[in-house]
## 1
Amino acid sequence: MTQNYGKGAEAIMKQTFPERIFNYFNITFLTILSIVTLYPLVYVLIASVSDPTYVAQTRGLMLTPKGFNFDAYKMVFDNPMIVTAYLNTFFYVIVGTTINILLTSLGAYALSRKNVMWRDLIMFMIVFTMFFEGGLIPLYLLVNNLGMLDSRWALIFPTAVSAFNLIIMRTAFQAIPDSLEESARIDGANDFTILFKIILPLSMPVVAVMVLFYGVYHWNSWFQAMIFLQDRELFPLQLILREILIANSTDSMMTGVSSSDAMPIGETIKYATIIVATLPILLLYPFLQKYFVKGVMIGGIKG
């Protein structure tokens, strides 16, 4: 350990003056960029727990909460639609991501095998969909004809497999040595055994990245819900958040609030709703961060 520190210090000492200037510039620039990127989120968090009148009167930076309280969060969670939308979103994320990973894994495994007929043609057709697609109207007609309109499955099955994620997972599967599959087949293993007991356990970094990609997509998805859903009991959280932010639909949360206080309280409710809608997915990143770079690199470089 001491020897490694010594080598690191020696490498720094060997840097030329322009290299040190460049490093200092990089550190300064990235620090400023991080502050600029993080401050809007910090501002929303501070505003959501501050006194609404103070937030309405404040112009410019706000670094500490004033009149600390959780009234806005109480009003948010007192709204039954928020709770219902939360449960709906968890359903879409958990069930949708599970189906995504299962189908993407099956497709990637089949297309990564060298003895699959017309493998290149199938891959060409899959890649073709990344550049050309039918559009919204054919998709709507398809969902309607399948009887999934105004149902939970309209948000899950039409996006069950992402072509981009399929290519990443296929490339990762191709990097696994063929000798492992050959040994398993000698022992009598079939394709499902090879996939679920050999390929997937060896590809956990890529699987973790796929969980993150699909999970974030389902969590943030609102457009398809707006197109395919009419029953408000099926709305995801992001669609309710959109109504609150764009349609200004906070009146139902402010029963008993005077008209003069309605506007500032409505603003803090918006901030609290943003935190409620984004915090869970932000908490997921630290658990998958260590797999992220490794998984993307494995899936992006053909072995």
## 2
Amino acid sequence: MNAIKNAILVKEASPSTDVVILFGDLRVYKEYEDVYRKARDLEVRFIRHVEEAPPDIDQIAGGRLEVSAYDALSGLMVKFPADWVVLSTPLRPRRGEVMHARMLKIPIGTDGFLMEAHLKLRPVDTNVDGIFIAGTVSGPKDVSESIISGEAAAARASILMGSGKVRAEAITGRVDENRCIGCGLCEEICPYGAPVVEEGKSSIRRILCRGCGTCAAECPMQAITMEHFEDAQIVSQVKALLTPEGVEEANQ
């Protein structure tokens, strides 16, 4: 979008200047679709290349530059001289952002940006209660989108601060201290940092627990059970289902 905007500025300042945009993938949305149409009306050329054949830049006689690129739409190799070659740099996540995400137990997407709890329903929430994301920390955004996400994150945080309390999950882990040997495996594998080993025994911080059951499944001593989701409860449900009355109800 920045490349298209700059191309329009050049054409408006100097209509006789030829402007070419080489792109591998072009995405415009919202009002920027009109900006793209305006660039086409101003005769800005768009050439799509493929990742396997990136454009080449060579210096020719007179110190000028010559750009060669494979046009994916026409299937031809095109060459043209250029007085200026301007690179559009992508927005990439900072290295420190990844370190903070791992420290806070926030998932990281395949592109390196932080993941929201739900793209549509909870766009500024994370899977950790009380931690919200805003701006380009979750992906490239323009100024207006960054402002909106910042306001949304502030509003979500103000709800917690206004109520003064946080409701914990109903299904959380519980440790049987008589069975726990303090191996620390639960503390190591928990994606939310809920278990903590102190004085040779593990305990679950309920406010951090999301009830995923990873610790209960991996505990070698079976010292961890999930509240309201215990083995005895599940077995009772299965037995009730296998009774003649339960089978008849399930068939209905």
